[in-house]
Design brief:
- By secondary structure, the protein is an alpha+beta fold.
- The chain has a single domain, classed as endopeptidase fold (from Nostoc punctiforme) (Alpha-Beta Complex), CATH 3.90.1720.
- About 35% of the residues lie in helices and about 15% in strands.
- The protein is built from 6 helices and 8 strands, in the order ααββαααβαβββββ.
Length: about 210
């Protein structure tokens, strides 16, 4: 019995060692080249997890949106404010100066414009770096294009006809695909939905 145990223990240690090596080999290492502002943007978004626990599309005046609820777009402007970027103010300024660039339906409203993905996508197309919408798991060259703090938008869902917007996280899955921070019905969350979201990516932007 003692002899058997002496043999089994080294074999067990070796098996665990090989398993660890296998996990290391399977993980895709993608260098983080995001700016400090982008990192802070992600950090601010993450603070909403557990705080923003509801999804709410109700109409509110700008200063009356409940802190514990919001939409996918609310995750964006809330995370931008602490880095000194007032998305609502900048969007409204451009709408006033270039109204022809923005969708006319539904009717424009300063209390709602910055909460509409369609409006934000137009703004981001104009004032940020437009990047690839292609994601290739395990392809480091491609995945380097997807950095923390990037913003991604998705086509309308067939069920709700709502578009979606999310922030690229600084965390990645084993294939190197980044997680996203977003509110899609159950409050702000961080999860592996970039390639699992049920509609197509239609925009990939970098503000910082």
């Amino acid at each position: 019995m003692k002899y058997t145990i002496k043999i089994l223990i080294p074999l067990l240690v070796l098996s665990l060692f090989l398993a660890c090596l296998s996990l290391q080999d399977s993980a895709v290492n993608v260098t983080d080249t995001s700016s400090q502002t982008a990192k802070d943007f992600v950090k601010n978004a993450r603070t909403q997890i557990g705080k923003v626990t509801k999804y709410d599309t109700s109409y509110y005046s700008y200063n009356e949106i409940p802190e514990e609820s919001g939409t996918c777009a609310d995750v964006i402007w809330r995370a931008l404010l602490p880095v000194g970027y007032d998305l609502r103010e900048k969007l409204e300024k451009d709408i006033k100066e270039n109204p022809q660039d923005y969708p006319k339906n539904p009717e424009m409203d300063p209390n709602v414009n910055f909460r509409r993905v369609k409006m934000l996508r137009v703004y981001l197309q104009k004032f940020s770096q437009n990047l690839t919408t292609e994601i290739i798991p395990k392809n480091v060259e491609n995945l380097m294009n997807w950095q923390a703090g990037d913003i991604v938008t998705f086509d309308e869902l067939e069920t709700s006809h709502l578009e979606h917007i999310a922030i690229i996280s600084d965390k990645r899955n084993s294939e190197g695909v980044p997680l996203i921070i977003h509110n899609f019905g159950q409050g702000t969350q961080e999860n592996d939905y970039l390639l699992k979201w049920p509609s197509k990516i239609n925009g990939h932007f970098r503000l910082f």
